[in-house]
Amino acid sequence: MQLVDQHTKSIMEGCKERARDAGLSFDDESLEYIVTNRDMIELSPKVMIPTMYDFWVHDVDVLKGKGQYELYPGNPYETVINTRPAISFYNDNNPDWLNVMIFYHVIGHIDFFQNNLYFRHTWDDDFAGQALADKRTIATLRSEKGRWLDYVIEFSRGVDNLVNYYGLLSKLNRNENTEQTSRLNYYLDVFLQDEKKVRINEYVGEVERYNKCLKEHGENGEEEYFKAVYQQHPEFAAMFEKNASKEIPQGDDVMDFLMDHSEFINREENLWMKTVMQIVRNTSLYFQPQIRTKIMNEGWASYWHETLFMRDDRIAGHEVDFARVNSAVTAMPKVGLNPYALGMRMMYYIEEAANKGRYSREFLNINNSDSRKNFDKNLDIGKEAIFKVRENLNDFLFVNQFIEQDFLDHHNLFVADKVLDEQRMVWRWYIKSRNAEDYKNMVKDSLYHPPHITVDLDKTGQDALYLTHHFEGKPLLKDFIGNTMMGIEYLWGGKTMLETTEVKSIKKPDQQPTLPGMPPPAGEIEAEPEIVWQRVRHTMKDRKLSKGLI
């Protein structure tokens, strides 16, 4: 592994200059390394961070990647790391024209990393450097604790998707005046009503005085308001500070709750486990936005590598070569999903629709198909629209908001399904639906969505940890419940209970049967079976799992 030479670096800097002229925004500094194809295979299964801590699962992934490469050798194009500075890796056998295309793709990723709000918690950190420090910490602990370290890593990774990722984002994007707002809430809701027990007319008078201060003093209105409060109630400051310092345990982040409230982990001889859990938790939080923005991220990078490459005068004579490589990356399959292809086409569609003014009440009220097709306001706001999309959305919001019937019709997309032809013993594919809602649901079902499990603070005590699965239409995978709860029991140091929802029975719908191997008649959607759900409680005690109805 080595840095790119000056000739290749100058190509990258030229790509950066053209990308900025097109509106992309990213840090000046970046590092580019040249690696072999085999090195690239090792980087990808390592979750793109070569400095990640050592764990046997990583080694298995690397071996699997090498095995796949031996069977199906190919040319992986790039790997880019979201860190400060951004680090990217390239094959050692790329021609200059291909590097131009790949550099534009990487710059698109870097722009997305550094401007999408779901990556907000990664903007100020050098994760590659932190990962290296974590790796050294893990190596030191492994030499001291042996196999127990790997047990703790294994158990922690079993619940590393139960982290309050959105809670972290809400803290980072919270208004700077949060402390003042909490002071106001405490004064009006607690101090006056519970402590002083003022009359209603006095309370209303305080609210009116607050509004008057805001009107007269603007941004300084709250400070002016509390000057009188501190004079009238000298004890208020101490009482507010005491109230703010109270620790209120939160159950939305299971990993964080275990680290803070497990007596077993917080024993002096076990504090090293908290260090390991924190490393696993931080790593999970780092990768949360990447897995939640796969379609958008790849679509954004593909949109820009295609847009900028075709404008670049340095690739003259290689348009056909580009078309061949680009089609292999961004081809839209009829069966399955290609995030590069879907995301890129949605970006183009949003840009075109915004330019034509189709995200307006006027267009939405049109029912005539010809009028909808010919609607065009020539607004020239498409680029602005996709930059706002890049900044504010994740995959779920992106898909839910912008996959619509006109998009499906334009690209001839559909939901496919298959039936087994028992006579020929082959699968027969057929078009199941061309409806936008069905296609949207198919895409949403493929997105990352961890189970929503929280700690029930009312039912959790010294005798047991009580977890509640907030059912969202998908049951937990039964094969993983036992091992995961065993790990939680170990980390908690006692009995663990999990309340969840499981299938009680499935009733097949009454409908006309089709011939074996034949799809339903054209235009007829196969009826979904009726599922009856029941609430159950799993209990893990002394490494033995039991289940009962609630």
Fill in the keyword field for this structure.
five-stranded mixed β-sheet, four-stranded mixed β-sheet, alpha+beta, 23 helices, single chain, 4 domains, 53% helix, globular, 550 residues
Quick overview of this protein structure:
This protein is an alpha+beta fold and 550 residues long. The protein has 23 helices and eleven strands.
Structure description:
The chain has 550 residues and is α+β, with helices and mostly antiparallel strands. It folds into 4 domains: 2-116 and 293-325, no CATH class; 178-244, no CATH class; 331-445, no CATH class; 453-512 and 527-549, no CATH class. It has helices at 6-21, 37-43, 56-71, 96-115, 127-145, 147-158, 165-172, 178-195, 200-217, 221-232, 236-244, 254-261, 271-292, 294-309, 319-330, 339-355, 361-364, 369-374, 382-392, 395-402, 405-411, 436-445, 478-492, and strands at residues 2-3, 30-35, 78-81, 86-91, 415-421, 426-433, 453-455, 464-469, 495-507, 530-541, 544-549. The strands form 3 sheets. The chain has a 5-stranded mixed sheet, with helices on one face. It starts with a strand and ends with a strand. Residues 56-74 have low confidence and may be disordered.
Radius of gyration: 28 Å
Principal-axis shape: globular
Structural class by secondary-structure content: alpha+beta
Number of helices: 23
Number of domains: 4
Spatial gap, N to C terminus: 58 Å
State which percent range the strand residues make up. Answer: 5-15%
State the share of residues found in helices, binned by percent.
Answer: 40-55%
Number of strand elements: 11
Strand order across the biggest sheet? 7-8-9-10-11
Q: Estimate the mean pLDDT confidence.
A: 84
Give unreliable regions as ranges: 56-74
Largest sheet: 5 strands, mixed
